[in-house]
From TrEMBL:
Residue ranges of domain DUF7347 in the record: 27-108
Name the UniProt record assigns to this protein: Zf-TFIIB domain-containing protein
Pfam assignment, any one: DUF7347
Residue intervals of the DUF7351 domain: 125-329
Native source species: Natrinema halophilum
Superkingdom, taxonomy of origin: Archaea
Positions of the UniProt region annotated as Disordered: 1-21
Amino acid sequence: MSNTDTTESQRKGSHGSHGPIGRHAIEAFALLGHKTRLEILLAIWKAHDLRADDNAVAFSQIRKRVEHDDPGNLRYHLEQLDGQFVRQQADRGGYELRVPAQQLIQTVIAGAGVHDEYLEPTDIDQQCPFCGAQTVMSYREGILFWACHECGGMTPGQDFASFDPPGPLTAHPFDPAGLDEWTPDELRAASTVVGRRRLRSAFDGVCPNCSSPVDSWFDWCPDHNSDGCDDCGLRFGTTAHFRCRTCDHHDGSTPKHLALFHPAVVSFYDNHGISTRVRADDFEHARRIYSLMLSHQVTVVEDDPIRVTVTASQDDEMIRLTFDETVRVVDVCR
């Protein structure tokens, strides 16, 4: 397996794994390490309107919702939150949430880290693109899986029993709150939307988790066998990788998929009456776009430094993108 991975020091960035960002995180957890302070944040969240010009919540309302017996002690906890999570609006006679607190509460509401949701493997109306078998959706530990239990999915050259679920086709982080809102077929389309959004952010150089810079590179398998490669174990021999320098978030994708983000490819398909947009409420179109992505041809045209082309064709016309070693498009040929 050849690769153009960045060094560990570059990947970690200037902060390192225990630098200023780590200290800031510890300080933030320390501020929230008291039940009353979390109750205060929730009390302000429930009482204010984010869309209103004046959404400050009075101390008396906070005290009523928190049901704290000691007003002096309650003010102390508010003072500890003031500045990082809460902003006191003296002219409005109350307190309002700062953006970090809003994001924290939205995460809690979404169910991340709170609900241990689980979805048993459930059949959906989509055949495996590689073996034609029935595919399933399942969910555990915050990840929504689309899989084929009859073949290796995206990992035909690896031990089938080593994956849970076996035969993974896609795996995307998915907040548990969304499980109750979609049918299994709709979950397939919804997970595509979520996965594309996160991948697009990484492809554009911004971590979808923490907004830090992302390093990107290609791995490729020179003697690849797509039916079950002993060298890389993967369905596709060329993989683009994206890794955050700060939080270490990592994502990988076939360049077949990345081509769908480029405006020239979007325009190319639009000229042929095909929209590359995917909506969670249009399962059939999500399925067509996935098939369209699989039809793209990937070629490693140079290996030092690596250059990768992706070619899309429709009605005897074609468009070709060339990616450099940093997974940036450096040429478009149509």
